[in-house]
TrEMBL record:
Cleavable signal peptide: none
Pfam families: DUF4268, GmrSD_C
Biological classification of the source: Bacteria, Bacillati, Bacillota, Bacilli, Lactobacillales
Domain (DUF4268): residue spans on this chain: 146-280
InterPro entries: DUF4268, GmrSD_C
Name of the molecule in the record: DUF1524 domain-containing protein
Domain of life: Bacteria
GmrSD restriction endonucleases C-terminal domain residues: 2-89
Length: 297
């Protein structure tokens, strides 16, 4: 589900289109029915804070009937959100054969009656888009929204670090604490973890081929390359040879304040470079040995 007007708009386009509204009103506009758009393609979930024209060109034009209808608009402002919300409520009336009590009731359901209060519109803002767009996170953001925003910023960088191959190219941002990659060997997993409560960020390999002894052998194959990986990764590497079942390799940094968005580029670079190193040195470089262990008796 896409918020056409982003939940936390930062680009100049959105700031200008909604410049007469307060931050709280913009938050309400973003969440109202007329601004919500179901997407037909998962790649569209990455549109996020792009301008309306960029969103149309990258996804809406070739999407569902609803997306195509929205793509016909020349721009997106509060009046368009209001009009689409009313239109969708009328659609509900026809679809389920009922009637709202009044126009006032419909407006109450949308929660955006302030759109039509006749307020003055300030002069258009003059703002140059920064090549390195500022990351803005509201102080009252929920944990889920914070994780979604962080992964949304991190994922394209991680995909690029892998050269656009399938390791992370088919992954979408989510509200989970982990971001899982694909390495092509069953039972061996590469993933990133952000733990808000523990203030840690890590790149990890998890080994579990449903066989305790094989798990240990796979770990030993990777551990044999310990010197190689430690020359590449400038952080402490945790090696955990599980006794009961799974084994892990972890590279973790501590004391991370995820609300300090000024550090996000540094944190994202850490994940990207470390994940590439872990896969290259501990999975790809010894793939034949790993397959031999997994396929052996």
């Amino acid at each position: 589900m896409e918020h056409i007007l982003p939940q936390t708009p930062t680009k100049a386009y959105w700031k200008n289109q909604f410049r007469q509204f307060t931050a709280e009103e913009i938050k309400t506009l973003s969440a109202t029915l007329g601004n919500m758009l179901p997407l037909s393609q998962s790649i569209n979930s990455r549109l996020q804070n792009d301008s309306f024209e960029e969103k149309k060109n990258r996804g809406y034009y070739n999407g569902s009937h609803s997306e195509i209808e929205v793509s016909k608009e020349s721009d997106w402002d509060a009046n368009k959100i209001y009009e689409r919300g009313i239109k969708l409520l009328h659609f509900m009336e026809e679809r389920w054969n009922f009637k709202f009590a009044s126009q006032e009731q419909m407006e109450e359901l949308l929660h955006i009656s302030f759109v039509n209060d006749g307020r003055d519109i300030p002069p258009e803002l003059i703002e140059e888009e920064s090549s390195a767009e500022e990351i803005v996170v509201p102080s009252d953001i929920s944990d889920d929204d914070l994780k979604l925003q962080f992964w949304t910023k991190a994922l394209p960088v991680i995909v690029d670090a892998f050269g656009g191959n399938s390791t992370y190219s088919n992954v979408s941002p989510s509200t989970r604490s982990t971001l899982d990659g694909f390495v092509g060997i069953g039972g061996i997993n590469l993933y990133c973890t952000m733990r808000l409560r523990k203030h840690t960020l890590s790149a990890n390999i998890w080994i579990d081929v449903k066989n305790r002894e094989k798990n240990k052998k796979i770990f030993d194959v990777m551990f044999a390359r310990k010197d190689n990986i430690e020359k590449i990764v400038p952080y402490a590497i945790g090696w955990n040879r599980g006794v009961k079942r799974s084994s892990t390799v972890n590279v973790e940094i501590e004391n991370v304040d995820f609300n300090d968005t000024g550090r996000w580029p540094e944190l994202i670079d850490f994940l990207a470079t470390t994940c590439v190193a872990l896969k290259s040195e501990l999975i790809t470089a010894c793939a034949d040995e790993l397959h031999a262990v997994i396929d052996g008796d």
